[in-house]
Amino acid sequence: MTALLEVRNLTKSFGGLKVTNHVDLTLEPGARMALIGPNGAGKTTLVNLITGALAASGGSVRLMGEDVSALPEPVRAARGLIRTFQVTRLFGSMTVAENLRIGAIHRQRRSYAILRRTAVEQALDEAVARVLAQLRLTDRADTPVARLAYGEQRLVELGIALVMEPRVLLLDEPAAGVPQSESHIIMDAIDDLPEDLGVVFIEHDMDLVFRFATEIVVLVSGAVICTGTPSEIAANEEVRRVYFGEAAH
């Protein structure tokens, strides 16, 4: 089976400072991979390199077996490499459905070019309704985003990513800024993601990491220091010392 995402020897340097140091990753269909590490470890930089938001100094990124290293971010997104951000990027005055519709239009622009207008409108409506139902947002469809609780706003951003039909979904701190009383909204949504979708997520909330991750990658100073299952990472003394600040026993 071809991996959804393969990162090989990925590097990024700013002058003499190497912020991503020969990173290798492989994401299989259905995998839930968590990227963890202390602040400044290079997690967001790595996601920027994978998506093409930042040009790599070396190495390669392959999406479903195809080398996309030279492709710009919009082209990678059109091929199914979709991300969310630490801070929501929504149109607050527009409704939930309208925000999702923008994502659907962006995803389907080329295929819709050959359809009649009525068929285009129907396809857009169906895509938005499907994601609204998936995220349990149907009753919020006509609500302006600015009137939603922050946890629900994060859910709308996830909805925009899903309506773009990702094959690989990169979540940059999906629970960032969400009050604990609303965190279950994000957890339930991640729990319900399609089983064949490959997910990479950056997260500092260890409860979320250990609940959802099938594999954990630990970054320190731009380099992977270890990779393993949640139980393997929890028992790793180097991780406990470097990341959790515990003395090795």
What would you say this structure looks like, in words?
With 249 residues, the protein is of the alpha/beta class. The protein has a domain of 166 residues: P-loop containing nucleotide triphosphate hydrolases (Rossmann fold, 3-Layer(aba) Sandwich), CATH 3.40.50.300. 37% of the residues lie in helices and 24% in strands. It is built from nine helices and ten strands. Strands 6-7-8-3-9-10 form a six-stranded mixed sheet, sandwiched between helices. Strands 2-1-4-5 form a four-stranded antiparallel sheet, with helices on one face. Strand 4 and strand 5 form a beta hairpin. Helix 5 packs parallel to helix 6. The longest helix is centred in the middle third of the chain and has 18 residues. The N and C termini lie far apart (40 Å). 37% of the residues are buried.
Write the layout of secondary structure elements.
Blueprint: E1 5-14, E2 17-27, E3 32-36, H1 43-51, E4 58-63, E5 66-67, H2 73-78, E6 81-83, H3 96-112, H4 117-134, H5 150-163, E7 168-172, H6 183-191, E8 198-202, H7 206-212, E9 215-220, E10 223-228, H8 230-235, H9 237-242
Parallel strand pairs: 3-8, 3-9, 6-7, 7-8
Antiparallel strand pairs: 1-2, 1-4, 4-5, 9-10
- The name of the CATH architecture of the domain at 5-93 and 166-242 is 3-Layer(aba) Sandwich
- In the predicted model, the low-confidence regions spanning at least 5 consecutive residues are 110-115
Overall geometry: globular
Portion of residues in beta strands equals 15-25%
Give the CATH class of the domain at 5-93 and 166-242: Alpha Beta
> Which structural class do you get from the secondary structure elements?
alpha/beta
- Give the overall average pLDDT: 88
CATH topology term of the domain at 5-93 and 166-242: Rossmann fold
Numbering strands along the chain, what is their spatial order in the largest sheet?
6-7-8-3-9-10
**Largest beta sheet, briefly?**
6 strands, mixed
Strand segment count:
10
Number of helices: 9
Report, as a whole number of angstroms, the end-to-end distance.
40 Å
Look at the structure and name the CATH superfamily of the domain at 5-93 and 166-242: P-loop containing nucleotide triphosphate hydrolases
Radius of gyration, in angstroms, nearest whole number: 19 Å
Question: What is the helix fraction of residues, given as a range?
Answer: 25-40%
SSE pattern: EEEHEEHEHHHEHEHEEHH
